[in-house]
Amino acid sequence: MNHRNCFEALDRSLTDILDSRDSHIETKLFGGKTVLLGGDFRQILPVIIGGSRQDTINASLSRSSLWASCKIFRLKKNMRLLSNLIDSNLRTSMNTFAEWILNIGDGKIAARKFEEEEDEATWIKIPEDLLIKSTDDPIHDIASVIYSGIEEKYYDIMYLTERAIVTPTNETIDKVNAYVLSLIPNEERIYYSSDSICKASICEEDQDILYPIEFLNSLNFNGLPKHELRLKVGAPIMLLRNINQNSGLCNGTRLIITQTATRVIEAKIITGNNVGTKVYIPRITMQATEHKWPFIFKRTQFPVRLCYAMTINKSQGQALKHVGLYLPKPVFSHGQLYVAVSRVTSCEGLKILIENESPEKEGYTKNIVYKEIFDDLISNNTSG
Question: Which residues form the DNA helicase Pif1-like DEAD-box helicase domain (predicted)?
């Protein structure tokens, strides 16, 4: 049989298979295949820029047309907290802590409503044993607890990977990162970005007048490094872009700097499947994804940022032995407090510093939970 006859026979066979398939399979979700969708509705919901509470709810999976076809399995054991338990007393305290975390996520902890609030009560009392007393220098207070002894241990990979300070906003993490970096004895190196506007997005004749380079340098965007990047050998950094997934250089990967050169940063991976691998990070050109400005912004810079501190949103998926939750202002969206307190692997490892101007609010912070997101969850069909 020649090649032509082989292809004709194969074509007839495939045609017979397609003709004999289930006539209704093309109308089934995912072509009739079983698909596992994982997630936790207690955690931060889809971010809708400028959207209302209802917009966020409507963008969630439980409001999708797919939801009616889903079978729900609810996982109840906090495996992060229940690992490496030794005695019954520790098991009891861990179970109590795990239940407290779940109650935060479900919005079941008794909340208080202060005078300026018009809607539902959201302020909850944090247990005293978790609180760090704030002085005139709160950043020093929380850093001295979470990064105690960093002057000697700043290059210890285990020390760095098991701890972090989390906080709601990028502005605050920049302050915390700058302070902790100042504690490291190594020489600081400053890298400046090259910023520009895409020529196709604006009239080129007016570009330099309307948007001078100094103005572009001052802009900050989510997911982009800052114009001025201050780094030291021994500092932990987090990648902001996927560079080489096969080598473990993915968005969110944490590394420790081993050498700073003019055109490249040498670093060692400290999280993921490629721990210990030495890599080289180049400058790359990144575009801002926000649509606040009437042009396409481009920044050429190393796609990294310090990660002594990270935003609560960015900390999702992290498992840490020591977590410091720094709240100069309360959380502002569903699930942020739950995500922050559930990053820790033991009840002894969580410390919280709250800044409140009113003495009446001492020890209180907001726990924002959109309880309507749980309305479509089915109480049966559960699995532990």
Answer: 1-112
Within a 10 A sphere around the Cβ of 298, how many other Cβ atoms?
A: 18
Tell whether pTM > 0.70.
yes
- 220-239: per-residue pLDDT in tens? 988 899 999 999 999 999 99
Which of 281, 307, 333 is where one domain is finished?
A: 307
Write down the pLDDT at residue 5. 59
Closest CA to 167 of 48, 358, 339: 339
Q: How many domains does the chain have?
A: 2
Which residues partner with 191 through β-bridges? Answer: 229
- The residue-averaged pLDDT of 197-219 equals 78
Of 136-140, 282-286, 295-299, 344-348, give the lowest mean pLDDT range: 344-348
For residue 327, what are the domain limits? 51-168+312-384
Q: How far apart are CA 102 and CA 330, in angstroms?
A: 19
CB 353 within 8 A of CB 377: no
Q: Is the distance from CB of 222 to CB of 289 less than 8 angstroms? A: yes
Amino acid identity of 194? S
Question: Amino acid identity of 77?
Answer: K
- Token look-up 């047309």 returns 65
Please list the residues that pair with 260 across neighbouring strands. 265
Q: Among candidates 323, 324, 330, which has minimal Cα distance to 355?
A: 330
pLDDT band at 306 (very low <50, low <70, confident <90, very high): very high
Instruction: Yes or no: say if 354 and 364 are a contact pair by the CB < 8 Å rule.
Output: yes
* Structure-block tokens of residue 368: 């924002």
- Note whether residue 63 is domain-resident: yes
